[in-house]
Amino acid sequence: DQQVKQNSPSLSVQEGRISILNCDYTNSMFDYFLWYKKYPAEGPTFLISISSIKDKNEDGRFTVFLNKSAKHLSLHIVPSQPGDSAVYFCAASIRGGADGLTFGKGTHLIIQP
Amino acid sequence: DTGVSQNPRHKITKRGQNVTFRCDPISEHNRLYWYRQTLGQGPEFLTYFQNEAQLEKSRLLSDRFSAERPKGSFSTLEIQRTEQGDSAMYLCASRIQGMGELFFGEGSRLTVL
Known about the structure:
The complex is a heterodimer of chains A (113) and B (113).
Chain A: E1 4-5, E2 10-14, E3 19-25, E4 30-38, E5 45-51, E6 56-59, E7 62-67, E8 72-77, E9 86-94, E10 102-103, E11 107-112
Parallel strand pairs in A: 2-11
Antiparallel strand pairs in A: 1-3, 3-8, 4-5, 4-9, 6-7, 7-8, 9-10, 9-11
Chain B: E1 5-7, E2 10-13, E3 19-24, E4 31-37, E5 44-50, E6 53-57, E7 65-68, E8 75-79, E9 88-95, E10 103-104, E11 108-112
Parallel strand pairs in B: 2-11
Antiparallel strand pairs in B: 1-3, 3-8, 4-5, 4-9, 5-6, 7-8, 9-10, 9-11
């Protein structure tokens, strides 16, 4: 039973445009959400997070939006750059992150020149 | 380099052999996690430690798997009598208790022939 779902295995975006990666979750107990970025042959790297008490968190080119009623979050990257090409994982946890993370399957973002 | 360190980075073994992976977390992090990642999937939780105590184990962790963190610093993950289905990337992560994001190592890739 996938509690965190990323339904788009891949996404292609032109350089300079906005990239929007989506994530849905089923467990209403999740209260802390994170996005990780992963290059081939490397471990995941933390990008940005959001607590369930917020609906938006911004860090430079990266913004995460949380819609609790829809159990949906999204990561916006603007403007997209070639170095953003990677696999992006959505992750969720309970109790503000005290527990381990549950990951989605990832979305492979490809930035086209 | 003060990040999470894992070794070996890649291990090729024959079915039935035992393998051991080591993880050195970030020094001040008291929580250490092991995850497994297979192709096309996100990282899947295996187990975690708070200091030297193993607090939770996933049902993915069969009795052929054992993890230790004897002095609350580095950890080892041993797989006995390896099977081809054990082929995966084994990821270690650490964090300070109460903080949300996990810091991952680069992973140890296991190939069972």
